[in-house]
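User: I'm putting together notes for a lab meeting next week and I want to include a structural view of one of the chains we've been expressing. I don't have a solved structure, so I'd like a prediction I can at least talk through. The sequence is below, exactly as it appears in our construct file.
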Amino acid sequence: MIKGKKILGIIPDRSGSKELPRKNILPLAGKPLIVWTIEAANGSKYIDRCIVSTDGEEIAEEAVKYGGDVPFLRPVKLATDEADSDSVVLHAIDALPQKYDMVVLLQPTSPLRTSENIDKALNLMLEKKAPALVSVVKTEHPPECSVRIGDNLKISELAVKLDRGKRRQDYPPTYRLNGAIYVAQSLYYLQKKTFITEDTIAFFMPPERSVDIDSRLDLRLAELIINDSD
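Assistant: Thanks for the context. Below is the predicted structure for the 230-residue chain, given as structure tokens.
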């Protein structure tokens, strides 16, 4: 609880990852990937309850073994490639009998996000009196440096044109969602059905806390960062 507001954390986990099968229970520095997020949530000073929403029994068993709270297995229709995280959050809010003032989505593919990151994000959102917040990281290159590759390998610039007289560092900084932390006031979220609106504010995170696991290369990078910080 923070400033009288009860907070629900949700860790979404789908068993059918295609690019990296069983991704969220693959080992990372000695424990399953999802456990890093369970421990960060359980270590938060403000989250009152954090649940794992999954359709997979193996994932549920692993989560419980490491202190995760799995109150249900979510419906198969919310475990397909087409099901988005917002559907999972809405289902969890509706499925739990107790109601919460704020909801926090913590994706297990962001294992390097810490309890301190979560608590600072919650404090910032209340300090700014914002209805929603998402974590971001500074992009390495400005969008002006991006191109599209068309037929016959032809390069075409994006709508935002590159000024060839400028160096990369001369462009204003830009940021991307890093997938680590999403927060919203529950009533606002139920109304908007998304964390990202015109009123959402940003919570800045450094690159070393923003690794998003999509491949084995990402796992190796995360493990290197973990080992380097020991």
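A couple of points you could mention at the meeting. DSSP finds six helices and ten strands in the chain. The mean pLDDT is 90.

User: Perfect, that's what I needed.
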